[in-house]
Amino acid sequence: MKLVELAGKKLAVSPVFTEHVTDDSCVLVFLHEALGSIGQWKGFPQQLCNALHLNGIVYEREGYGHSSALRKQRTNRYLHEYAWEELPELLDTILPKEKQVVLIGHSDGASIALLYAARFPKRVKAVVSMAAHVLVEEITRKGIAPAVQAYKAGKLEGLRKYHGDKTEELFYAWANTWNLPEFRDWNICEDIETVTCPVLALQGVNDQYGTSLQLDLIEKAIRKGQVTKTMIPRCGHHPHLEVPEQTEHMIAEWWKRNT
């Protein structure tokens, strides 16, 4: 892991290498969830890089893990800011401009992946979206309350292993922002219409933060790119952790068909 210095902040970046790379013109970039980090991906980045025979990069956004702390209060545009400001600056800093990326996003990270692919289509070869949010469903807001109760009860203390003294600020930056009145109308469907690359949209049938509506809206919004959507049975919000082998297999098979 290393710290990459950007304008006014540092981001933690960890490379993932695999043997027998078959295409050096692109790299997998893993985008974590709302309370995620490099470590919380567990072994999935290495597993997927090995399956696709591509190298990868895992990084932590501002406010997370080993990266710099949040510098300002979040608004309902925070995912756009990560997608259209931070991510392009990071990629332009650490990768040659001619190298394409395959974005592997989970939850917030999947929304960021779709937004980035819409704004920078030539840079993106493909997107794997796991449990993305493209609008706020009632189930999403209802799922936050139990998480807040669990945090107050000390049941989420494990997050401190990954985020240290940033944990409380980060947790409430997530919970409070999604509960903002102006977040009720948050919707990125029009923003992702310009995605042109292949997209694999995955979601667990038992996801407590979203329903199949999210996949349907992604498919409807992206008219120029080919969208493959799959609901995963017996799976909640974390396909890559709950059913990692199945998720890796679905991505690998889709990759073979679309590249």
UniProtKB/TrEMBL annotation:
Transmembrane portions of the chain: none
Protein name: Alpha/beta hydrolase
Keyword Hydrolase: yes
Listed GO MF terms: hydrolase activity
InterPro entries to which the protein is assigned, alphabetical: AB_hydrolase_1, AB_hydrolase_fold, AB_hydrolase_sf
Pfam family, one: Abhydrolase_1
Signal peptide (UniProt feature, chain positions): none
Cellular component GO terms, alphabetical: membrane
PANTHER family recorded: HYDROLASE, PUTATIVE (AFU_ORTHOLOGUE AFUA_2G14860)-RELATED, MONOACYLGLYCEROL LIPASE
AB hydrolase-1 domain span: 27-180
Domain of life: Bacteria
Keywords from the named record: Hydrolase
